[in-house]
From TrEMBL:
<dbReference type="InterPro" id="IPR000835">
    <property type="entry name" value="HTH_MarR-typ"/>
</dbReference>
<dbReference type="Pfam" id="PF01047">
    <property type="entry name" value="MarR"/>
</dbReference>
<dbReference type="InterPro" id="IPR036390">
    <property type="entry name" value="WH_DNA-bd_sf"/>
</dbReference>
<dbReference type="InterPro" id="IPR036388">
    <property type="entry name" value="WH-like_DNA-bd_sf"/>
</dbReference>
<protein>
    <submittedName>
        <fullName>MarR family transcriptional regulator</fullName>
    </submittedName>
</protein>
<dbReference type="InterPro" id="IPR052526">
    <property type="entry name" value="HTH-type_Bedaq_tolerance"/>
</dbReference>
<feature type="domain" description="HTH marR-type">
    <location>
        <begin position="1"/>
        <end position="138"/>
    </location>
</feature>
<dbReference type="GO" id="GO:0003700">
    <property type="term" value="F:DNA-binding transcription factor activity"/>
</dbReference>
Length: 156
């Protein structure tokens, strides 16, 4: 492992400790949104309705874990089960109006927090940082064999 990889690991660890998630943005007026629900809703929003099997493949998690996460999201009113729009046998999960609203509120909170952190950064610095993060995530996705769709693209 290179010395630079050690630096990246350490900075990634520090990044994960900052806890933007735990501040006031962690709870909306309709109650808490767990981090797992935020990621689940984000994926469904970009890709469209997904079955447990599709979610399991996308997240690299076993179906029982996804069953627990989707059940919690259903109890919170964030997702609902629908028949497969393509006519398949499996039921799929889609975001409810409340789930979409809460996801937007959470994302707006994070964007505002990032705006504060990067207030003194140039537009070029922000663009380069976003590009490096996208490349880093895309390379992890390539190695794991689980690409993640980006908004404005044609899926995974």
């Amino acid at each position: 492992m290179s010395n630079r990889s050690h630096e990246v690991e350490y900075e990634q660890m520090l990044l994960s400790r900052h806890g933007l998630w735990q501040h006031k943005g962690g709870r909306g007026k309709d109650g808490p949104m767990e981090r797992s629900a935020y990621i689940l809703l984000s994926r469904i929003r970009v890709q469209g309705p997904m079955s447990i099997g599709e979610l399991s493949d996308a997240f690299g998690l076993d179906a029982s874990t996804l069953n627990r996460q989707t059940a919690a999201a259903m109890r919170s009113g964030l997702v609902e089960r629908i028949p497969d729009p393509a006519g398949g046998m499996a039921r799929k999960f889609q975001i409810t109006d409340m789930g979409a609203r809460m996801l937007d509120e959470k994302r707006d909170y994070f964007v505002q927090a990032l705006d504060k952190v990067m207030a003194d950064w140039s537009d070029d610095d922000i663009a380069h940082f976003a590009s490096y993060l996208r490349r880093f995530n895309s390379d992890i996705e390539r190695i794991e064999g689980r690409p993640w769709p980006r908004p404005g693209t044609d899926g995974p």
